[in-house]
Known about the structure:
The chain contains seven helices and 17 strands.
Amino acid sequence: MSDRSTAEARPVRTVFLGSGSFAVPILRRLSAHPSVEVVAVVSAPPRPVGRRQVETPTPVHATASELGLEVMTTARLRDPAAIADILGRAPGLIVLADYGQIVPAELLDLPHGALNLHPSVLPRHRGASPVVSAILAGDSETGVTLMRMDAGLDTGPIVATERVALGDETAPALEARLAITAADLLERSLDPWLAGELKPRPQPGEGATLTRPLRRSDGRLDPAAPAIDLERTVRAYLPWPGTFVETDDGMRLVILRAAVAPAQPGDRPGVFVSEDGSLALTTGDGRLLLHQVQLAGGRPMNGTELLRGRPAILGRAVRA
Length: 320
């Protein structure tokens, strides 16, 4: 760990911006770091959750309250009042993770800048859904990038990167793993950054991709697609927007866990079939084994259980 000069020995006043669960381990690690003082946490406002629409704070808001940190909530960070409130705390550094808003230029020009922890190896998978996009693309590795923020969307210079192998994780499992990776990366990079020893480098000009926010309609599976693409989609879209197929008569089947199997002679895409006594769906190039499914209003069950209770499902076609 680097030693900062005597003039910099006092903890750096730091504002943390975050909302989602990815940011929680990062906030915990930052708040415990001796080189900074977290003077405020900025998060999205509470929103209604669940059937009863109970006003619920973000995971970061809840964690900050637990840690005894002051919380600011704003739906619009560009609001002049929000900017003035943050700058009024005289921060020397901003750290951001899983926040979901563009940071205005007035907050980027601080003595130690504004750092963002992004769950991908930039410039690949910039934007709103990097974890989901890495799974959908079938990437063999992903990671976390610590970058100094600029006016663009995840385009700032890279301070440090940590790569990790990508297996068959679901999006929540991968996000949780990357959150710990991000916290580790920040912890070991913070002192060298504050001491001026880490020099950010421009992002590579090639290999940039941009991800988009997810939509509820993304969850409908196209049975004509390759089986491996459908299996990745099931893992990537858990828990939201989720994945489902729908039969011509309106039966909706949510798919929670799946695997890939080869096609059999006579298969045509989009038909429920039996695979070794369990339920499968024929696809564009193989079969999707439906290991865990859920009918509307029902409980999760395995494909064998569903097939046993509803044998007439065999041979039924699903909508493209």
